[in-house]
């Protein structure tokens, strides 16, 4: 396996700490037994937080690999958090996917810890060098991560439904009586519309395509629904 500059991309809202950093230690065969600190550098178009190891200057030691630079962010197309490693120079243009998690409270704005959902090792890149999926025995992931499954709240009172789908003019939402707001993103994760919560939403001005409707309550808990605009 050639030398890599690594990024971690992970991109949910319960069990969150107030910290804006994530400390990761794992995959010792590749990264050595050392801590990597990720700083929250902002949010993407879907409201998910982005974390990057800093400084990005090509000098962060990473065992036999040389240097490592990481990023944690949400992949809206694959609907999962990703742990990425940069391929060189810290530009993150063509990063290596090291782990991904598509099962750990995907509605939250920050990533899950190594005990929530499944952080799956991408063995096609690591060549099994990380020793399998992340667990509490082979790694630590602390700070601005959530450590529990979603709490009981408005979204658990009934099954949230959206209709019609595909839609031409108006989306109707049932199964929830109140929430804080609603936003719509395209499949690239870019926000195209945001409004206060309503059970009937005018989407007639959207261009044809596939979108994600996210309903967010006052506690930050969210529920996402995919729809097609005709």
TrEMBL record:
Residues 1-19 form the signal peptide. Residues 162-226 form the Secretion system C-terminal sorting domain. Keywords: Signal. This is T9SS type A sorting domain-containing protein.
């Amino acid at each position: 396996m050639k030398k890599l500059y690594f990024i971690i991309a992970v991109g949910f809202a319960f069990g969150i700490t107030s910290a804006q950093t994530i400390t990761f230690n794992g995959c010792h065969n590749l990264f050595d037994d050392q801590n990597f600190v990720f700083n929250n550098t902002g949010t993407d178009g879907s409201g998910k937080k982005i974390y990057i190891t800093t400084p990005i200057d090509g000098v962060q030691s990473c065992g036999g690999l040389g240097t490592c630079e990481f990023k944690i962010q949400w992949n809206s197309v694959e609907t999962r958090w990703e742990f990425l490693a940069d391929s060189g120079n810290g530009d993150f243009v063509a990063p290596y996917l090291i782990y991904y998690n598509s099962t750990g409270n995907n509605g939250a704005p920050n990533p899950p810890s190594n005990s929530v959902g499944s952080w799956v090792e991408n063995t096609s890149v690591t060549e099994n060098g990380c020793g399998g999926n992340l667990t509490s025995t082979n790694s630590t992931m602390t700070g601005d991560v959530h450590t529990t499954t979603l709490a009981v709240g408005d979204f658990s009172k009934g099954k949230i439904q959206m209709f019609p789908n595909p839609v031409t003019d108006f989306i109707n939402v049932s199964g929830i009586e109140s929430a804080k707001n609603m936003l719509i993103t395209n499949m690239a994760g870019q926000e195209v519309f945001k409004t206060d919560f309503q059970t009937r939403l005018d989407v007639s001005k959207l261009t044809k395509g596939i979108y994600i409707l996210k309903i967010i309550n006052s506690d930050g808990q969210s529920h996402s629904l995919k729809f097609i605009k005709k």
